[in-house]
Design goal:
There is one protein chain. The chain is built from four helices and two strands, in the order H-H-H-H-E-E. The two termini are 17 Å apart. By secondary structure, the chain is mainly alpha-helical. Helices cover 45% and strands 9% of the residues. A hairpin with a 5-residue loop joins strand 1 and strand 2. A two-stranded antiparallel ribbon has the order 1-2. Helix 2 runs antiparallel to helix 3 and helix 2 packs across helix 4.
Length: 121
Amino acid sequence: MAKDIKARVQGQNPNIQPQNMNDFIGKDKINSIYEALAVISKRADQLALDLKLELKNKLDEFTIHQDTIEEIIENKEQIEITKFYEKLPNPALIATQEFFDRKIKYEYRDDEGNVIEYKKF
């Protein structure tokens, strides 16, 4: 599996597709739609943060540090990278696809932080 998110999702459709709610639950998956949406939502939050950090790191590679604030330089590489990231699928769509591809793992923990139940979908 590729290390960066953009490489993993380049072929994924960035448009929203309707989903059958029954596909989210079942005997070999999650028991309730609410649990499925909670897992997907948590994963989408993780992906959003990872994408933000990944984009920031890539943009920092092209940053030109100057002493004066008055002068702003447009960097074409930064603009192209930003446009590329804007075209990537929304983190919720990526998380939903990961859910259907059974690439999401999650666990329930008690108040002390001990793992009660571990699932991989």
